[in-house]
Design goal:
heterodimer, A: 321 residues, alpha/beta, Fumarate Reductase Iron-sulfur Protein, Chain B, domain 2, Alpha-Beta Plaits, four-stranded parallel β-sheet, 8 strands, globular, B: 487 residues, alpha+beta, Uridine Diphospho-n-acetylenolpyruvylglucosamine Reductase, domain 3, five-stranded antiparallel β-sheet, 18 helices
Chain lengths: 321, 487
């Protein structure tokens, strides 16, 4: 029998080491990866949650070298927890990832940022990001604002609150403001029937096909497009207004209910939407054209019902004149 | 083939620049950390490929096959990577063709009652697309949330409803296949029936990627029934449940689902999900469906009475979708839940899907527990017993070398029994590496025929070599185990 030695590496990976049995108990069924926004974006299995579990196992046994590529995988996760919700083996995937991160940081092996937020030279050191980070991941090291990569959950709230635009998430997996704006305009410009953009936070389990594509004949008449922006905390005026510049009739945003939000993103979502609705009212546009819904995790049916009601409402209003 | 005989196997490396020329730089991975991930699936095996390539078009697949055939490089097509016996583990290295990006549903033809899909379409997605028209694609395995149509074809997948609606082979009308030399052929038809000829599309189903790469499939679908009623019966004695299954199937009843779960499985589900299942020796889950309620009532009552006759208790049935979903959820998530049976034991996909004649179902269930006790391991009995399929999983401490020896012994004994009662090694998960030992014994008199077919279609042996009849005799040493085993 070909066997693997685990003892020497386990010593080095002291945080990850405690998950050795869990990593064996994961049956590698793969049920987690349909839920992962990274897998959705790249289509590579090696970006999915199972891949990180396999990599963590490989790091522990020494079968995987802590190369840039392997480390980058461990530091790439939005902590949306959908993989954990889907895992009936009960593997605490994100806790495993966090412990792997702690070991790699302690070994001075954090070579790339992955989805960890970073700070550019434009930073004015106003410290707003430190106050607003819901995970206490940002700190002032005496010279610069830094991020603890084992605490950062890549929710992107620092990116949205930074007045200098200095906080960034290098690998956004399609969730950056630019990516979302671009995808919204492509949909609105290429579908005659297009009426609305729905910004969904990943926790909301948006309805629709997860990993396949419908024939053009089925999608050409679509009147809305769902775009995943990860967290309601990342909603801001520019993003919400962009679809209207492409003649959208309305914009809907979804975030978690107050008591379910992992990142306090609902606070910002409510604030941003309320502000825009007031602006709409002031310029004589029906504020109902912009709407926030709070969807409990996993409730695709409710989400679909809310979208249908919103589209019905827009149909009555017609386009903005 | 002798143990470790690799004389007929290609052993070359790849030229990355050629692959880039075919599919583009963004569709190739060669970093060892990526290769390590693609060397595993849901089985116990692990082996490293040389490259992972993501084709997006049929032309990409043709280009890769031409290059691989010329240079004798193994090519292993991979869907969701949910296989349980190492079908996509690259035992001799080579190129993994990750088919998940060929994921378009090409046509839903309601008039002619078929749909055309690319191989990377996920089963659940296809059913979601079909649902709006009141139809569904029935073979659906428990892994339907990630299983791709290509993978289901390769393994002739089936699931809980196959007892009434059949397996993948029954739903495939035709397909387009890229052969090892890169040629594209259309097999089968778009019609419900096709007379003589070799029905090559049916041969492709269950060939585990050893004969060709499916790039498009034409599938039939059926109407979603108006009424579905699901029932449960508990049993204090496992054999009684087994006898009830045999009686139901022999009675002429047409269940749309007939599932067995034993005490180990019930305990695992209860531990993972708050379903409150009663911890008895065994439970039967049965379902009938149809367009007429009276007809469904008739079937359900028939099955209830048979369960009662075989000492079933707490028998009840419901049309309520919420209640049905709750019962079904426990069954659907059973495989992953088994790993929670005991924190020190991992659930391994071994000897997991044999089929036996209905009359042997009770004996089989008892035999599994007897063999487990004798070998000091935990085994569970559950499955789509209505179609003759009995699942088991081996729960063991994968760190202990002696547990692997016990598992190997137990598995041999299970298969020996299965063959002795005219059963078959694999009902729906496939052979791959883990089950080849028993497969070769079971198919001894037709093995040369299988080898001849393989040689005729793939003379250079580049398509998924080392699987089925080519797999090594000893599955434990065939590849690295994906677990860490202490010496």
């Amino acid at each position: 029998m070909k066997t693997k030695t685990v003892k020497t590496k386990t010593k080095k990976f002291k945080h990850l080491g405690k998950w050795q049995d869990t990593l064996a108990n994961c049956i590698r069924c793969g049920y987690c990866f349909e839920h992962c926004p990274m897998f959705h974006h790249t289509g590579w299995e090696s970006d999915a949650p199972r891949a990180k579990i396999v990599t963590a196992f490989g790091l522990l046994t020494g079968e995987v070298e802590p190369s840039y590529s392997a480390i980058d995988k461990m530091f790439s996760c939005f902590y949306c927890l959908r993989c954990e919700a889907a895992c009936s083996s009960g593997v605490a995937l994100t806790k495993v990832f966090t412990d792997a991160r702690k070991d790699l940081v302690e070994m001075d092996l954090q070579e790339g940022p992955g989805t960890t937020s970073t700070t550019t030279l434009q930073c004015a050191r106003c410290l707003v990001c430190i106050e607003e980070c819901p995970h206490e991941a940002r700190f002032y090291d005496g010279k610069n604002i830094a991020t603890d990569p084992s605490k950062c959950q890549s929710c992107g709230i620092c990116v949205e609150v930074c007045p200098a635009g200095a906080a960034t998430i290098e690998k956004s997996f399609g969730t950056s403001r630019n990516d979302l704006t671009k995808r919204a305009s492509i949909f609105l410009q290429n579908h005659e029937s297009a009426k609305a953009i729905v910004f969904a936070c990943n926790w909301s389990y948006y309805p629709g096909l997860q990993a396949s594509v419908l024939p053009d004949s089925e999608t050409s008449g679509n009147d809305y497009e769902i775009l995943v922006n990860m967290c309601g905390g990342r909603l801001e005026a520019q993003l919400l207004m962009a679809p209207f510049l492409n003649n959208a009739w309305g914009v809907m945003a979804a975030c978690c209910p107050d008591d379910e939000c992992e990142h306090k993103g609902y606070l910002n979502a409510k604030k941003q939407i309320e502000k825009l609705r007031k602006t709409f009212k002031n310029i004589d546009i029906d504020p109902e054209r912009i709407q926030l819904v709070q969807i409990p995790a996993g409730n695709k049916t409710l989400f679909q019902a809310e979208i249908d009601t919103f589209i019905e409402k827009l149909n009555k209003m017609g386009p903005i004149r | 083939m002798k143990k470790n005989d690799k004389s007929n196997l290609p052993m070359r490396t790849i030229d990355k620049s050629v692959l880039e020329g075919i599919v583009g730089k963004d569709n190739i991975k060669t970093d060892p950390s990526d290769l390590y991930i693609y060397g595993t699936d849901s089985s116990v095996h692990h082996a490293m490929p040389w490259a992972v390539v993501k084709p997006r078009t049929t032309a990409h697949v043709q280009g890769i096959m031409k290059y691989a055939n010329k240079n004798l490089i193994p090519v292993i097509a991979r869907g969701g990577g949910s296989g349980m016996c190492g079908q996509t583990v690259p035992i001799h290295g080579g190129i993994i063709l990750d088919m998940k990006s060929m994921n378009k549903i090409l046509e839903i033809n309601l008039e002619d009652v078929y749909c055309r899909v690319e191989p990377g379409v996920v089963d659940d997605d296809l059913n979601l697309a079909l649902e709006q028209y009141g139809v569904f694609y029935p073979p659906t395995p428990a892994s339907s949330r990630i299983a791709t149509i290509g993978g289901e074809i390769a393994n002739n997948a089936s699931g809980v409803r196959s007892v009434k609606y059949g397996a993948t082979r029954d739903a495939v009308l035709g397909m387009k296949v890229v052969l090892p030399n890169g040629d594209l052929v259309s097999l089968g038809a778009h019609t419900r029936v096709e007379a003589s000829g070799y029905q090559l599309h049916k041969l492709m189903v269950g060939s585990e990627g050893t004969l060709g790469i499916v790039v498009e499939a034409t599938l039939s679908f059926v109407p979603i029934p108006e009424f579905r009623c699901m029932g449960v019966a508990n049993f204090d004695v496992l054999e009684d449940a087994g006898k009830a299954i045999g009686s139901i199937m022999a009675s002429g009843a047409t269940p749309s689902m007939l599932e067995l779960v034993d005490d180990v499985a019930i305990k695992a589900v209860n531990k993972t999900m708050d379903l409150g299942l009663k911890e008895v020796a065994a439970a039967l889950i049965f379902e009938a469906d149809g367009m007429v309620k009276e007809a469904v009532d008739y079937e359900i009552n028939k099955m209830k009475k048979i369960c009662e006759k075989h000492n079933g208790k707490d028998i009840h049935a419901s049309y309520d979708p919420a209640e049905r979903a709750k019962i079904f959820m426990g069954r659907k998530k059973l495989f992953p839940a088994l790993s929670k049976y005991d924190d020190d034991l991992a659930s391994t996909a071994l000897a997991d899907d044999m089929a036996v004649p209905y009359s042997k179902m009770a004996e089989m269930a008892a035999k599994i527990h007897e063999i487990a006790d004798k070998n000091n391991i935990v085994m569970t009995a559950y499955g789509h017993c209505g179609s003759g399929c009995m699942h088991t999983k081996i729960l063991m401490d994968t760190k202990r070398k002696d547990q692997w020896a016990s598992a190997k012994k137990a598995i041999s004994q299970v298969y020996e029994y299965v063959r002795s009662v005219n059963g078959t090694t694999s009902a729906e998960h496939g052979i791959g590496i883990s089950k080849a030992e028993s497969f070769k014994v079971e198919k001894a008199d037709s093995l040369n025929l299988l080898i001849t077919i393989k040689k005729a279609l793939d003379p250079n042996n580049i398509l998924n070599p080392g699987k089925l009849m080519q797999a090594p005799e000893n599955w434990v040493t065939a590849t690295n185990l994906r677990y860490a085993v202490n010496n």
